[in-house]
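Quick start: read one record
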Amino acid sequence: MNSEQLRQLFPSPSAIPPAYALSTPIEQREYLVNGEIKIWNGPVAEVYSPIHVMEGGELKQVRIGSQPVLDRAAALEALDAAIRSYDGGRGEWATMRVKQRIECMVRFAKGMKEKRSEVVKLLMWEIGKSLADSGKEFDRTIDYIFETIEALKTLDHDSSRIQKVQGVYAQIRRGPLGVALCMGPYNYPLNETYCSLIPALLMGNSVVFKPAKYGVLLNRPLLEVFRDCFPKGVINFIYGEGPETSGALMESGKVDVLSFIGTSRVANILKKQHPQPNRLRAALGLEAKNPAIIMPDADLDLTVDECITGSLSYNGQRCTALKIIFVHESVREKFLETYCAKLKSLKAGMPWEDKVMLTPLPEKGKTDYLKSLIDDACAKGAKVMNENGGTVVASLLYPAVLYPVDSTMRIYNEEQFGPVVPVVSFSDVRTPIDYVVNSNYGQQVSVFATDPETVVGLVDPLVNQVCRVNINSQCQRGPDVFPFNGRKDSAEGTLSVSDALRVFSIRTLVAAKQSDLNDKILSEILEERSSRFLNSDYIL
């Protein structure tokens, strides 16, 4: 699409469907601390949508409201509330029976469902995600909550007995770690954030939650649901600049678990701020530069479909996106021709439009950054292979397919996190394998081939470099029951339905040597059901 066509995609205010229009700006000053929704009287940050509207022949960015910018004192107040709630492991939530924690979480999920339309609308306006994908993100988060509950029941079932080994009785359960700081990404501000927040809570930790830079207001409809479903101090919200808020929390040394999804640069800063690093447990989802490797015998129609979705779904703004494509020289021309033709059929527009795939980019300055990558590659010999690729109007950038790309170009190594698709030709399969080996990242890779021997020749070395090899399919996170992790600078810890419960907990046991006295004590505790730890309760 040329610049005029892109420009015409932005609507006039009256052309926005009433069902998806924001009637008034959302001026948020509320934040949740210690079971109380407080009002912040300090500074706020303006919140603008990536969506622009046409007014008087000019494009104007839509202001959707404002959000609180808490200071260091307010952030530490939230941390103190979480510490008091945990109370050194003696708090109500930390010592609550698993069944009761689950009941609280079920109430929360039901309350969250009632806010679906509000949250989905804000996902569209805050981060430019399509209506269909926003709905999927919400529904997937609800599903994740119930899948995590079932996984916790299974975990608890396996722990609901006392075993006897070498004359020693022991009951082994997983216990909470303490206070968790949970920070999520802007591209999946609901799903990926809650995929750490939910298991952290279910395992008995108290949490301080800081939303991403973009996608903050969508949490506002859920503040009262959180307040009403959990004991005070168990979940606390902070907003504002990182150095002033999350930095202050880490520097206190009182955070036991850091859950962060973002860049390795920021993760390293946060970890280094903690004065007692051996005390800190980290669960990190970081960058990735996932390659596709297309072999001569690949089914090109299938390959192009998967690579289009893998590289351009939500404008390529996913850690699991395909961010560089290696294609064998024998099928290079056919692949590029087919890929560019398929790209041309993709619909660009506003998030609420039916079947839209290419939408405005939420990050300030993102189009300038992506254009600099395109310009750098073209200056070093690459060409934009698709018509009008790289055209920018306001927050819209029409995808650019770059070829030939080589190691001298920034796009070869930098994670673009946007709709720029670098293509590298190879004759020797060692070229893409060496790329993976030498990369700073090690999340996933996609291999495309039809011959089983060819597939094996790629799978066997690559599984020792990345954490998921996808055969004839795009890189992806789901299903959520599968491990989601990475090597090198791509991740620390494993997040999936069952793995996340383990990340936010630690195995703890109570042991007693067999004796008449201990037999009597343990029997009485079990019969009276007086202990939340030492029991044989079975949750249905």
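DSSP finds 18 helices and 25 strands in the chain.
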